[in-house]
Amino acid sequence: MSGTLVAIIGNTYPVKDEIKALGGRWDATRKCWMVPQERADEARTLVEAQPAWVCDECGAELSRPWCPGCRDEMFIRQVR
User: Fold this and answer.
1) pLDDT tens-digit profile of 8-48?
2) Which of 10, 24, 26, 52 is positioned for an S-S bond with 47, CB 3.0–4.6 A?
């Protein structure tokens, strides 16, 4: 291992255990995961597979910025 760490951002919460298993550590100051450079591509792949938006009204994970359950865009939050 080189010792170089790479910041991983986005909707990391659903895959936090997998990122930790890759050697990642949560950096509370930067609000991101720091992962060894050798495992960064794997961590990014995990995060990119997560939904891009979340509806704060009903909690639905969405692939587009519109909630079919709430029929609204007001509560949509982009997570990546």
Assistant:
1) 988 788 899 999 999 999 999 998 999 999 999 999 999 88
2) 10
Q: What are 60-71's pLDDT values in tens digits?
A: 887 777 788 887
Q: Which pLDDT score is estimated for 18? A: 97
Into how many domains does the chain fold?
A: 2
Could you give phi then psi for residue 62, rounded to 5 degrees?
-125, 155
Q: Clarify whether residues 11 and 37 are in a common domain.
A: yes
Distance CA 10, CA 32 (A): 8
User: What element of type H or E holds 25?
Assistant: strand 25-27
**CA-to-CA distance for 44 and 7, rounded, in angstroms?**
10
Q: What gap in Å lies between CA 76 and CA 38, rounded to an integer? A: 34
